[in-house]
Design a protein that fits this description.
The chain has 7 helices and 2 strands; from the N terminus they run ααααββααα. The chain is mainly alpha-helical. A two-stranded antiparallel sheet has the order 1-2.
């Protein structure tokens, strides 16, 4: 196994990838266990690099996040006595945060589902690596979720002039 150091993950030459790794790490921390989260992230990177040995880890993670980050957000407002969803553009930083949160939630759901079914027992890092790889290939469930949000924003585009934020 190739040894990685946390410094290599957090401080990469590319600024966007280092921020993505930092955000992933911060969202993975549970009960202040940052060392455990770092080890999980190292295992995820190792598993992803097994599948794509020629592509750099930075490129894989950045592209996976870009493929699933939504460009719009909705706020619920009462318009003419009815509740409507008013679309608005998201800031790029918030887009990354939502995409990372979605990936982690989906990996947790898949891990819980296999625990309930009592099929093969894999760790969280296997499910997270699978989700990152499928997001990199544009085959993830999250890409359909993103497209759904974009479709809803397109249908509610007429309400965009009522945006207040």
């Amino acid at each position: 196994m190739v040894t990685f150091f946390p410094q290599d993950i957090l401080f990469t030459p590319d600024q966007t990838s280092s921020t993505i790794f930092r955000k992933l790490l911060q969202n993975m921390v549970k009960k202040g266990n940052k060392k455990k989260a770092q080890l999980l992230l190292l295992h995820v990177i190792f598993l992803v690099q097994k599948v794509y040995p020629t592509v750099s880890k930075d490129q894989i993670f950045v592209q996976a996040i870009r493929n699933i980050q939504p460009g719009f957000e909705f706020k619920k407002a009462r318009v003419g006595g009815m509740s409507q969803f008013i679309p608005g553009a998201k800031k790029p930083d918030k887009q990354e945060n939502v995409a990372i949160r979605w990936i982690l939630e989906l990996a947790k759901q898949k891990q819980r589902k296999t625990k309930v079914l009592k099929t093969k027992h894999y760790g969280f890092e296997h499910f997270l690596a699978q989700e990152i790889i499928s997001a990199y290939r544009n085959e993830s469930e999250l890409t359909t979720k993103k497209l759904e949000i974009h479709r809803l924003a397109e249908t509610n585009r007429a309400l965009a002039y009522q945006r207040w934020w």
